[in-house]
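[Discussion] Sanity-checking designs against the backbone

I'm trying to build intuition for which residues belong where. Below is a structure token string of 256 positions. I'd appreciate it if someone posts a full sequence so I can compare it with mine line by line.
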């Protein structure tokens, strides 16, 4: 391997405490030195977009400006007002021994039902980040492109669940004239989805789980990232918090 890239989503807490972005990068590098990465790699480029970081490394035998050329890094916000950077992407490109490489680290729109928003974020990054030939998008120019980050696509265990249930109207009439509690319907549907998901995970039915992956389904439908390939997915889905912890936090908020 000639190199590696790492994308981070780091809390801006350190910056709020007066720590500069360079200070955060320095701390990351210290960790890498402890893991002996620094002895084998040089940093080719690094970039930041609020809480997002992208660092590209190359083996020390590849010399900057000799073996590695045309290095460039840009950012594209897709969050509030499309430009504030709470969501978006960092893009780095370079040429190594005649081969063009591009790395994208992104943070896309959250929440279960915001699939089209996530798709739009990806298209927005590709449309607005112009490098090299400004008339062409990145995919048209690169030999290899690597997309990573907090993509936020979820598992559609219960695609029939209406995400608006319980938002406004608490009940609605049924055919027999009685009222149905929509919030209860939503809670029961989500609970069933959770049980289905955890059962698949406990039985390590990875192939079944990934047939429900929103990103995979969107790629198959031709909505984004045409031609991209994912590695073998033989691991459970992840989330930043587990459900018991989320419940505890909600209870604490209610008590306050």
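Best answer:
Here's mine. Compare freely.
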């Amino acid at each position: 391997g000639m190199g590696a890239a790492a994308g981070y989503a780091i809390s801006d807490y350190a910056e709020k405490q007066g720590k500069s972005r360079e200070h955060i990068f320095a701390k990351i590098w210290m960790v890498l030195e402890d893991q002996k990465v620094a002895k084998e790699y040089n940093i080719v480029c690094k970039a930041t977009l609020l809480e997002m970081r992208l660092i590209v490394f190359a083996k020390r035998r590849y010399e900057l400006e000799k073996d590695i050329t045309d290095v460039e890094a840009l950012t594209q916000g897709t969050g509030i007002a499309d430009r504030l950077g709470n969501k978006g992407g960092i893009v780095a490109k370079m040429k190594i021994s005649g081969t063009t490489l591009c790395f994208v680290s992104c943070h896309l729109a959250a929440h279960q039902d915001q699939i089209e928003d996530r798709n739009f974020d990806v298209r927005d990054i590709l449309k607005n980040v112009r490098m090299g030939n400004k008339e062409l998008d990145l995919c048209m120019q690169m030999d290899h492109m690597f997309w990573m980050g907090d993509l936020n696509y979820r598992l559609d265990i219960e695609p029939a669940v209406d995400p608006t249930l319980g938002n406004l109207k608490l009940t609605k009439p049924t055919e027999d004239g009685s009222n149905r509690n929509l919030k209860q319907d939503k809670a029961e549907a989500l609970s069933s989805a959770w049980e289905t998901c955890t059962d698949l995970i406990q039985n390590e039915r990875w192939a079944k789980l990934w047939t429900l992956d929103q990103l995979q389904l969107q790629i198959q439908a031709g909505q984004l990232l045409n031609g991209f390939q994912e590695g073998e997915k033989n691991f459970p889905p992840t989330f930043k918090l587990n459900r018991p912890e989320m419940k505890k936090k909600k209870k604490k908020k209610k008590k306050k």
